[in-house]
Amino acid sequence: MKDNNENSYEGRIIIVSNRLPIVVRKESDNIEIERGSGGLITALAPVLKDRGGKWIGWPGITEEERIDISQALAEANEDVGYDLEAVVLTQEEVNNYYYGFSNEILWPLFHDLQSRCNYEPRYWELYRKVNRKFAEKIESTVKTDDFVWIQDYHLLNCARELRTLGVRSKLAMFLHIPFPPLDIFLKLPWRYQLLENLLYYDLIGFQTIRDRVNFIDCLRRFFRGVQIEGRGQVVLGKTADREFRIGVFPISIDYSEFEKAARSQQVADRAWYLHEKYPERKIILGVDRLDYTKGIIQRLKAFENAIERFPELRGKVSFVQVVVPSRINVPEYFELKQEIERLTSEINGRFTTSGWVPIHYVFRSLDRDDLVALYRTAEIALVTPLKDGMNLVAKEYCASNIEEDGVLILSEFAGAAPEFKDHALLVNPHDIVGVADAIYQAFTMDIEERRARMKPLREIVRENDVFYWVDSFFKGALSRDLKSFPVVKDYVPR
């Protein structure tokens, strides 16, 4: 039975992403399901729970594995509180659509690293095919009043495929990664097709104003007479045959969840252990997924430069660099891992003294309490991607810094920079000496300035949390907020 609310929205929320919020694995003769992780899942899972919605995505297995996951999905539905629908891909589709077009073309191109792109024609063919496959799955379940919210760069073509199939529901896209400037976007052989396909969405959402400006510049280059009307968070775009909205919606985190965790006894105990492990030293923290866009190599070189030029840092700081494994089976990522480990070993070999090792390198995923304990304990967070859509580590660090004595050193090319520019130490991650100077500035900063910087950073994250992000997106798409989709009190996922 639905809440009796005259302002309620009658349709369902249907979220579509490359991956489901679960991971399916076959272990011996058993099928095992684990909850997925990452910012997208953290942000969107509460949106769907008990609202009768759906999440459509790839479960991580291929058709060739011939695994029947229907029973496992049914059990997962009960656990998460909404329906999961699987789009199963062939190994060829995974190789060409996911590893190929998505991650050898769009990922580096949209991060301004066009020299890493591999414009293999086969990739585009399979990208189109898989987007069609996703659209067919959506079409088989969607109703006219449903709101279909498609996530990220893997599915940019999906709206056009859905319109071709006759779907008339509201369609929205949120791009979690940056959108490149015109001169870089022009390098894409399928630039016009991709841009035109995006215009079939009712709303296209970006992380920052910079991304929206880049997108509009591209529109004006390829569509003569395109009109952009309005000001503020959402503007209206018009071409000869369609209208669409273009919005800016900086994604965020569940501030309360991180602050609550940071104040818990479990985290306090682990934080105390870290103080004992690094006595009378300030912890400099880096937390990143293994990826060449994160600037880990440049960051290590900047730390080396700092302890070389500022001897007073030696024995007084410990740089803890956490790298979460990702795509290790891809040669480029394996080579990056080797380079990180080589450089870490070289720096430690140069500067280690009795009782002090400069860099503590951790290559694994941390559980939530261990991560929050590091956030709470670290006096300095070094968040220096070469380019990032947002970077939620910066926001997680601020939310967890309950003593309000930490310093955030942040890349000016992170999506979080416009929100944090007045209170973080902004750096160019390519400027090794500049980042080293920022490390020294943070190390020598007095407690009054630290608190004067961290307090407003925490307030920004608190006021603009993940629920604010969701509400602002729904308002941009439907002129409604999340409360318009009532909780179904007796909803049982099918």
Topology:
Layout: E1 13-19, E2 22-27, E3 30-35, H1 39-48, E4 54-58, H2 70-80, E5 83-86, H3 91-110, H4 121-139, E6 147-151, H5 158-164, E7 170-174, H6 182-185, H7 191-198, E8 203-206, H8 209-222, E9 227-229, E10 234-238, E11 243-248, H9 255-262, H10 265-277, E12 282-289, H11 296-309, E13 317-324, H12 331-351, E14 359-363, H13 368-377, E15 380-383, H14 392-400, E16 407-411, H15 417-420, E17 425-427, H16 432-444, H17 447-463, H18 466-478
Parallel strand pairs: 1-4, 1-6, 4-5, 6-7, 7-8, 8-11, 12-13, 12-15, 13-14, 15-16, 16-17
Antiparallel strand pairs: 2-3, 9-10, 10-11
Helix pairs in contact: 3-4, 4-5, 9-14, 10-13, 11-12, 11-16, 13-14
Keywords:
494 residues; six-stranded parallel beta sheet; Rossmann fold; alpha/beta; nine-stranded mixed beta sheet; globular; 2 domains
Outline the structure in words.
With 494 residues, the chain is α/β, with parallel strands linked by helices. It has two domains: 13-251 and 467-484, 3-Layer(aba) Sandwich (Rossmann fold), CATH 3.40.50; 255-463, Glycogen Phosphorylase B (Rossmann fold, 3-Layer(aba) Sandwich). Helix content is 44%, strand content 18%. The chain has 18 helices and 17 strands. The strands form three sheets. The protein has a nine-stranded mixed β-sheet, with helices on both faces. A six-stranded parallel β-sheet has the order 14-13-12-15-16-17, sandwiched between helices. Helix 10 (265-277) packs across helix 13 (368-377) and helix 11 crosses helix 16 (432-444). It starts with 12 loop residues before the first strand and ends in a 16-residue tail after the last helix.
